[in-house]
Amino acid sequence: MSEQTYQLIAIGIYFAIMLGIGFYAYKQTSDLDDYMLAGRNLPPGVAALSAGASDMSGWLLMGLPGAIYATGLVEAWIAIGLTIGAWLNWKFVAPRLRSYTEVSNNSITVPSFLENRFKDHTHALRLVAGIIILVFFTFYVSSGMVAGGVFFESSFGSTYLFGMLLVAGVTLVYTLFGGFLGASLTDVAQGLLMLAALVLVPIFTVVSMGGLGEVFSSIDAADAAFNAGVSDPADELNRTSLLFGGTVLGIISAAAWGLGYFGQPHIIVRFMALRSAADAKAGRRIGISWMVLVAAGAILTGLIGIGYFFNSGEELSNPETVFLRLSQIMFHPIVAGFVLAAVLAAIMSTISSQLIVCSSALVEDIWKIFGKEATPGQQVMLGRMGVLVVALVAGLLAIDPQSNILGLVGFAWAGFGAAFGPIIILALFWRKLTAMGALAGMITGAVVVGIWGNVDALSGFLYEIVPGFVACLVVAYVVSLTGKPNAEDGAIQAEFDEMSGVAETMKV
Asked: Which helix (H) or strand (E) holds 344?
């Protein structure tokens, strides 16, 4: 059999496993709470790996190694910022959010939590938050579908449309029927596959090169050979330095990606699904360990690739293929096929998580405001219809591979981080935050990101999440202090005290 046949067999096995997990989750789902939050019964390991896998898209296996290969360790600041942000999120947000969402009328979505937290009977908070989630994530899902189409087109020579529809179709099936549990369990399998790939590829490459000493000698030789051919010192490379080639604002912008964690609905919803607030401690340890290992693996893959391809004389036309190329060289085609499947896993895990959040926003946060009451079975069916509708719209947007959808990923990350991040933090730690303060801050954060991110002079100067996050925080604080107190302030404070007591008892 040809190498491509072996690789396609591996990917076929991967697809079958994902569909099998989705069918298992389907049998465990009976009501909307099950479909949207797995009945709040997610073990910490599942929650941690699911949060990690749903966060890390194809960027982890292709974008980050490619950036390191092309520019050097200065590109690692995004990974450093993300890791710090994830640790802070698990440490401070996870236990309080898990406790508060249960205390506050058993909220199962971020928008419903905001409404219940502030006793907002106008539904303004819930509606605006739901719309923000629905709009941004529809494009976010589209970007994943585009990535799937491009992957099959570049790896197997298939048509873009076939690859896009195949990835979208398989992901849609197991998400449509398996719901949150299906997405979470497949995330675990996908997260473990990504971990294995990112650990094995650099290890095997280092061994083949004769050890780390030879690797770094080869990297230095590659940089020296490149620098000998440039006349401007500004164009030189020192790819083993964390600071060379970067500016203060550039490093701040890269590390600031970590701020986005506090407001990503598809990540923080995992905290809400934990069995208890106490599980956040174990979740943090598992999740951050996984994140450190995969980020280190991606960074090392890019660095090692510099030395390996310099020694071999092979030039990569696209630096983002360094991970895929090394896997094809180091492993048997069937193993390389599973490494390719790891790239698909990174793409699909993100799509499935975002589909569930979009569905919950559509059904739980918009339909329930304007629609009629429904039975548990009808609610699950509405949830599945929500997944289908969002997937269809996203698929239509993804038909054109030349669309600018992929460029919206960083923009959407900033939008969620700035709109929701400060509000979630203040809602959990500051009892004086009001509904009007939260609404004003949320809108301000989204607007600032929208304007800043679309003005090249501003976005080139500083990543839009920084001004958006600060603006949201300031506006929410000022409006809350100057506004009128809620008539149900007594009940709000009682719930805050109950949440704080649970979180303090846990000491996670």
From this structure: helix 333-360
Within 10 angstroms of residue 6's Cβ, the number of other Cβ atoms is: 16
3-state secondary structure of 240: coil
Cα→Cα distances 410→137, 272, 311, 352, Å? 12, 25, 35, 18
State the alpha helices, DSSP H only, in 361-407. 368-370, 376-398
pLDDT (tens, 9 = 90+) of the chain, 508 residues, equals 788 888 889 889 988 988 888 888 888 777 666 776 666 788 999 989 888 888 777 778 878 888 899 888 988 998 999 999 999 999 999 999 999 998 888 888 899 999 999 999 889 999 999 888 888 788 788 888 888 887 888 778 888 888 889 888 888 888 877 787 888 888 888 889 889 989 999 999 999 999 988 999 999 998 888 888 777 777 778 888 888 877 888 888 888 888 988 999 888 888 988 888 889 999 999 999 999 999 999 999 999 999 999 888 888 877 888 888 898 889 888 888 888 888 888 888 888 888 888 888 877 777 777 766 767 777 778 778 888 888 888 888 888 766 555 566 778 888 999 999 999 999 999 999 999 999 999 999 999 998 998 888 888 888 899 999 999 999 999 999 987 777 677 888 888 888 887 766 665 5
Angle at 349 between CA 111 and CA 185, to 5 degrees: 90
User: Which residue in 14, 17, 299, 418 sits closest to 178, CA to CA?
Assistant: 17
Residue linked to tokens 């048509």: 159
| Residue 72 phi, psi dihedral angles, 5° rounding | 120, -170
- Where do the domains of the chain lie, and which CATH numbers do they carry? 3-506 (1.20.1730.10)
pTM given for the model: 0.87
Q: Is 42 in a helix, a strand, or coil?
A: strand
Task: Compute the C-alpha angle 508/500/128, nearest 5°.
Answer: 105
Question: CB count, 10 Å around CB of 138?
Answer: 21
Return the DSSP state at 371.
S
**What is the C-alpha to C-alpha distance for residues 46 and 261, in angstroms, rounded to an integer?**
18
Whether the CB-CB separation of 295 and 192 falls below 8 Å is answered with: no
